[in-house]
Amino acid sequence: MAVAVTEALAGARHLVVEAGTGTGKSLAYLLPAALHALRRVSAFVVSTDTIGLQEQLIEKDCPWCENLVAEVETEPLPRCFPQGQAQLPLPQRWTAARHVPPQTPEEARLMARLLVWLRQTQTGDRAELNLPRQPGRRLGTALG
What we know:
This protein is 53% helix and 3% strand. It is mostly helical. It has two domains: 2-85, no CATH class; 89-142, no CATH class. A two-stranded parallel sheet has the order 1-2. Helix 2 packs across helix 3. The longest helix has 22 residues, at 51-72. It starts with a helix and ends with a helix.
């Protein structure tokens, strides 16, 4: 799987892999993605669907990957920030929402905050926005 991930990243192709529990899937995508990001001076995002996987990545897999990369690369791996899928905005929805004029002053303020946040975010985490619980409907759906 790690070879397939490496080849997909090098060829800018999508890859779908299915494997059972405990087969090392996380490490098989983390390590190639980390090395690819370091060599291209870019970043990568890992979005999880479960809190369990997010915790595994934070507590075990990302530190392991960072240590391994430190042994073979002179540049340190940037900090790994796994995020639950619900914490990341959906770019397609954001793109659609920003092409429609705001319907209310609240939507206009939220759009302005989002534009500033997009340029400043380090992790892409919606928690950085510090938004009220229920933003405007149209923009709320833009965030996922």
